[in-house]
Fold these 3 entries.
Entry 1:
Amino acid sequence: MSTSEVEQLTARIAEVASHALRDATTMPPDVYTSESLLALELQRIFAAEWICVGRVEEISDSGDYFTIDVAGEPLIVVRSGGQVRVFPNVCRHKWGRLAEGSGNVGRIVCPYHAWTYSLDGELIRTRYMDGAEGFCPADHNLPEVRSAVWAGFIYVNLDDAAPPLEQCRAELQGRIGNYHMEDMRRICGAEEIWSTNWKLLVENFTDFYHVFHTHRDTIDRYTPTEMIDLQDGGAGYSFGTARVIKDAMPESPFEPHHPDLDASQREAFAMIGVFPAQMLALAPDRVFYMCLEPLGVDKVRTKWGVACYDHDIDAETANGIEALYQQLNGEDRPRVEGIQKGVRSRFAGQGRLSAYENMNWEFTRYLSRRLSG
Ligand code: FES
Ligand SMILES: [Fe+2]
């Protein structure tokens, strides 16, 4: 697709975004299949915004690390003492891949020629470099990538000019800070690759409209559409809440929770799209989250998990919670993967939105702001 076609697509997104919710439509289907638009999204969104890469509990001890890609950049996220640090997963010698998966290390040793870095990225050992005239290890430390923690989530930003995370999350923090997600602990989760465009997965997670039918055997039983409170989002996020019928919930609901929650928060879920690619289903006692990494126009890695207040949760309860979210994902996944096939159809047009898709409409407006101009 040529530059002018990307311009055409962003213009069409802007056109959709210009409508009020009452006469809003979906974005054009090509938005989910265009390689050039994905390249623009990686550049203007994933390489420029704060991207969630996981929870701090994943690296609770010094030396704990995991690897992840952001906007195609391979990274290592590591705990060095009390600090979370993020480095390129690329050796300063000859681009060796420094680490795989997750684990615990005392130092970072390149598997190729064993250049060795401290957990702070300092090059502390090299072998057989005596003949390299003027070689100074300090000139070859790993550069640190910007990272910050909000509410127990780790974020990375590849853009040194981007505003601080704290500033970007300030408004949302004012709205949900009293849930104290930083006090929750991750109890389960997984990484999966779904065959769909990343935007369809954001839209699915924050779509109140699909709950009554897609999840008719699960969450609709205790969060019927009539109990959803549509709300406006704000700077960098979409937001809505759904009150629950506690008696219809499968487990002892919403306990334990933080005493700072107000009465309405204790009786409801909050659904939040933290733009661009993190989603939260926030209950009084837990958060179900997803962080996305686009792998192609029709492939996305989702890193999902559940974090709870109950730090001493027993294995059986944790397994039950994991099974519930596996079930919900199992209800969503074939549908969003099916949509990815649908957007390629010659018959695919732009559908009208229900008012219950307001968070999708806000996402379109966010995309338009980031991609236009
Ligand atoms: S590439 Fe890492 S030590 Fe050579
Ligand atoms: Fe769903």
Entry 2:
Amino acid sequence: MTTGKTYFISGANRGIGFELAKHYLEANPDNIVLATARFPASATALNELAVKNSNLHILKLDVSDEASIASIDSQLKDITDGVDVFVSNAGIFSESRGTVLSTPAEKWDKHLKVNTVGPILLFQALYPYLTKRVTKKVVFISSVAGSVASFNPAFPTDSYGLSKTGLNFIAKAAGAELASEGFIVIAVHPGVVSTERGTKTFDEIKADTNDEVAAFLDSLMITPEESASFLSKLIDELNEEKNGSFLNYDGKTLPY
Ligand SMILES: NC(=O)c1ccc[n+]([C@@H]2O[C@H](COP(=O)([O-])OP(=O)(O)OC[C@H]3O[C@@H](n4cnc5c(N)ncnc54)[C@H](OP(=O)(O)O)[C@@H]3O)[C@@H](O)[C@H]2O)c1
């Protein structure tokens, strides 16, 4: 019997998603990794990884496009009948450091579509595949920026923050809805991570703040490899007690 599991990771052509895909391929040659990219042809690093790993499958997916989400079923059918772990990682933080009053409709819509509604619709599409396995783990990569209890006025990230608050709510709601079916659904903050996007964002925040806050942010920074390693440990160790929780990458519970 195989010891491997099947992992579906959205937004895996770069950043945390890419490192997670790489991590699972290295962790066990029996793992199957289903990694999505909006533009597979230009996902160079992922394509290079696929050349060396026949158990890596690259799927085309734009989570802001319903037709693209619907196409996941036909893309998956020939590869696998089941998925053990769904990591909803794809997300944007697009010029998001606005305030409630200054953020236009288009920015609220964009963040909600990619960071909240897209992951929900993708979960709906993957549900039949997750029910085929006993593992049934669903991990929404969220952000501490979505924690209402930890709201920090020093970092106004309103449309991004709202979209991740919504995602946290969905983890709680889906966890409750599907607990009796054996699902474990969580939201997780992956850390302050030095991906290209993370570094750019935190440099912008630091430029607007004082040395003390900037030094604090620097002290929190971890690499994408470290984040992926922490996340995979957390995902491996998930049990039903964690269902519906919002966790830090190191496993500590975060307040909603
Ligand atoms: N980095 C941090 O410090 C940090 C902190 C808290 C939370 N997070 C969360 O962690 C996750 C990954 O962050 P990251 O730093 O690795 O970001 P990243 O390097 O910008 O990567 C984001 C990934 O999401 C994909 N993506 C964006 N829009 C998409 C769409 N409409 N459909 C499908 N895929 C899409 C991107 O694809 P393309 O290459 O095609 O754009 C890319 O693969 C995000 O959900 C983010 O909010 C990150």
Entry 3:
Amino acid sequence: MMNEKIRLTKEKEMLLMTLYGRAQESRKQEPIIKDHDAEDIIEKIDYDFSKLTIYRGDTVTIAIRAKYLDQWTKEFLSDHPKATVIHLACGLDSRINRVQVSDTVAWYDIDYPEVIELRRQFYEERSHYHMIGSSVVDPEWLSQIPTENPVLIIAEGLTMYLHKQEVYDLFQRLSDRFSTGQVAFDALNPFATRWAKFRKMTRTTGATFHWALKKPEIIEEWVPRFHLMKQLNLFEAPEIRQLPQDAQQVFLLFQKVPWLKKMTRLFLYRFE
Ligand SMILES: C[S@@+](CC[C@H](N)C(=O)[O-])C[C@H]1O[C@@H](n2cnc3c(N)ncnc32)[C@H](O)[C@@H]1O
């Protein structure tokens, strides 16, 4: 597909923001993450990225989030070479290529049907790689996923678009279907969800943020089988220290205020 007009709206259009963020970071001299597919794809689509007003800080946090989720994925697959990966709300993300999975891993990328239709222009299904066009809140897609191997479920940039009950039901369904595995996702805190309403990117796309996570223990109360393994405040990641001095300033300021530093966090839970 060469320079075809993109017609996504709301939360679907937001995948262009994260794609662009990774591409921008990837082009730097010493990037936090290398994402050749993102660099390539943004050249092939016709979309005015400037209308999203993506700040340098956004690019950094998008890259840090992707880097740690890639790392956690590699760690899981190194411990479980025969495994299933469910990548919810994949958008046009290239994690399947960045982590270089072997054929003993069955990988499922899931997003809305319109998104998967677009995704198929850039990625091809292979024997161990599948794409499913469905809302993640529709319980039906889960029946397509095999249950015999340990499972890693990744949800990057998804939970804020769901309502509380939808997140709760999704986690319950995952826990009911799989006997052992891990769940990795990012979540905003209540302040970040409110603040997002004033960002140009949400006003331009019409995307609405709903769910926020106050503290990670809430998930353990919802699903007693889930146990928190790791968490990371993106604004406190070690990568922030490697940024040029002027780029660090806003992060250093945020680090001083608890509800600012916890605006966007990554979580990893295990269950068995
Ligand atoms: C900010 S983008 C993130 C995309 C990708 N994870 C990335 O990091 O580039 C949000 C994604 O969530 C997807 N999404 C939001 N709600 C969804 C739902 N109910 N079912 C499936 N996908 C959903 C959107 O279509 C979009 O691809």
